[in-house]
Amino acid sequence: MEIVVIGWIVLAVGLGALWARQQVTLNATSVDVAWSAGLVFLSFLYPWFVDGDPVRRAIVGTLGGIWALRLAWHLLSDRVLAHREEDGRYKALRKHWGSRAGLYFFFFYQGQAAVAVMFSLPIYAAMHGGQPGALTWVGIAVWVIAVGGETIADRQLAAFRADPSTRGQVCREGLWRYSRHPNYFFEWIHWWSYTIIGGGAALTWLGPAAMFLFLFHVTGIPYTEMQALRSRGEAYRKYQATTSVFVPWPPKGETL
């Protein structure tokens, strides 16, 4: 676990530098990218130092790194490069915290470093063990389906938002017809791949458990739906009434 601590220190320094930058720019949106970029770093760092079959370590590190890199790029292009203004969440926090915003944002940024390390533990644990077997290939298949589904959902939503004729409307295109949060669903499924590859080792269960908690009770679905109700009102309420919140399923009134 020594390498995990070293990784945490590196991320803490990096997030500290990003925090100092946002003190100047007054834009904390970069923190959205930081934790996923941190997971890219940790996924590629661990295989060099942990015990376990070299092929297993390489497979797990590559899966974790590619997933995190895709997410980091999506967040960078969607939330940072596409918008010059600070994300509304952080504007609200800055206003709420007032004169103490700088200090509180420092702890918020450091919290993201800790979250990245926490989510790296299932990847770290899945690297331990012998040569890849049947479970490894099952885990890879789950990973491909999950990351593929998440990528498709993100692209469908991006295309919908980019169309001026859909402004103010609710996206019901593709996977969004069957789930209000298909991107979150496939994100959650992705974490099961490390549980499978790791043969159910204790730390691998942290991924799906923690992600489910975050999605349903911390920063995921509650906040997203609150924002959607503010911006789309009755149209989104109708969407909520007919469409599954998480698991893709035919809308009410339709059958498989």
Structure at a glance:
The protein is an all-alpha fold and 256 residues long. It is built from 10 helices and no strands.
Write the layout of secondary structure elements.
Elements: H1 2-25, H2 30-45, H3 54-81, H4 88-97, H5 101-126, H6 134-162, H7 182-197, H8 206-217, H9 221-232, H10 234-242
Helix pairs in contact: 1-2, 1-5, 2-3, 2-5, 3-5, 3-6, 4-5, 5-7, 5-8, 6-7, 7-8, 9-10
Structural account:
The protein folds into two domains: 1-130, no CATH class; 133-256, no CATH class. The protein is built from ten helices and no strands. The protein has helices spanning 2-25, 30-45, 54-81, 88-97, 101-126, 134-162, 182-197, 206-217, 221-232, 234-242. Helix 5 (101-126) packs antiparallel against helix 8. The radius of gyration is 19 Å and the shape is globular. The relative contact order is 0.12. The mean pLDDT is 91.
The gyration radius over C-alpha positions equals: 19 Å
The topology string of helices and strands comes to: HHHHHHHHHH
The fraction of residues assigned to DSSP E strands is under 5%
Spatial shape: globular
Count helical runs: 10
Helix content: over 70%
Ranges where pLDDT stays below 50 over 5 or more residues in a row are none
- Which class best fits the helix and strand makeup? mainly alpha
Q: Can you give the mean pLDDT?
A: 91
Describe the biggest sheet? Answer: none
Distance from first to last alpha carbon: 47 Å
**How many discrete structural domains?**
2
What's the total number of strands?
A: 0
